[in-house]
Amino acid sequence: MRRTAVIGRPNAGKTAFTISFATYLGFQSLRFVKQTVEGEAVELELSQEAAAASLVSPTPHKTTSIQALELECAVGKGKRQFELLDTCGLVEGIHPERNIRLAMAQSLQLIKDADLVLHVIDAAAVGRNQDSFGVLEEELASWGEARGNYLLLANKMDLPAARAGLAAIQSFFSALPVIATSARTGQGFKEVKKYVLRIL
Amino acid sequence: MRELSVEELLAKVKRGELGVEEALGQLNRKDQTPTLALQQAKARLNSLVGLENVKKLVEELEAFIVIQKRRQQVALATEPLVLHMIFSGSPGTGKTTVARILGELFRQLGVLPKGHLVEVERADLVGEYIGHTAQKTREQIRRALGGILFIDEAYSLARGGEKDFGKEAIDTLVKAMEDHKDQLLLILAGYETEMEGFLSTNPGLRSRFPIQIKFPDYTIMQLEAIAEKMLSEREYKLSKDGRAALRRQLVAASLSGELACGNARLVRNLIERAIRKQAVRLMQTGSSSREELMLITAGDLGGGEGF
Predict the structure, then answer these.
(1) Confidence (pTM)
(2) CB-based contact (8 Å) between A97 and chain B?
(3) Which fold has domain B80-215?
């Protein structure tokens, strides 16, 4: 099955995006398979509301394992299946917590293996602080350019500061496609779906 | 510093010895290094004397592979990559050398996972009793998986008539070409006339080998260039009269027909013998200046005891 990795800094809205994108594709109940850093697989079936309540949090590094969702999309008369993998947020440097280091290594491995990478960026945070891009973004951008199949999602577009953030993201990642999204309002999901289906 | 593998990099991140962005950076450069290796392989091919048709074909193939991959990325229909080849030409015209470079090139382009070359001949494929051949052939195919199986003097598989086991080897090879489509590249090599006869008696084979490359005999001037290249690789050089002596020898070999059955290999033997003779000469004269240690003279190349 083709794999799509959702990556980004902590609190960019990766999990919220994953959940609402699955809902947008018509899934009421979400069957997550958590691939923990210890190598176990834990299944978890949640309704959209329950998932949003239990998996999404304003504190960074809520997600510390890969959360895989098997999704399918109607294409013409058939269906296209793919895996959407929510990952642990990436930060620069060496994280003091072992668990998070393990989870970030898992994310890196996945970025390397995935067929498509969706890089989620908090556009509102970028709008508030124009210098929020670091080495991490530079490396990811050059990687994305080299590998292809790399899409940037300027997320949290429902917030007022995000408009300025979107412009900053577009100029920083000038060689990569950017789609403005909002996990809360569903903005941009149509374009994301189109892009995903074209690649997978 | 030795380059770390992906696993080692990730293990370092896990142990907290390496920052996430540094690991990303190293993974990044790792992904980009193949292009350097690709350029080196191409440079090696382009440094070969002559073989203009081969160089042009390789360029075409590279462009074709890259574009097919890009088409695949944007989900356009792609042509299957069937790259089995037939190399026809006299001995010493560069068939094995080119095959080896192609393996490396295709590995860098992502067509072959390993890109190594397994060189076999009839005796490696054909067995002695019924059933033995398929087993032996499959064993060689297994060795070559992920790379190139290069069958030298492939026409010999078809000699010996109806009862010969060579036919069984051919059948096994044809089956493997289908079964391991993405993992095996087959090159059949041999003299031009014999290969032509081989293919015309096995009409099904020709269509399975879409790429047919002819390796022409080298001209005397090309052989001179090859000799100079071989010498400079070994850090030797020809004196003026040495160059004249080399040409005389090549012309003589060409007239006697020796050249056509040795080509670059004949030149290599000539050069290696000259290097030995130079060593003997220097031992006798006792001189060992840097210049003298490098120079090959007419005397080293002369002496007509054949090759």
Answers:
(1) 0.59
(2) no
(3) Rossmann fold (3.40.50)
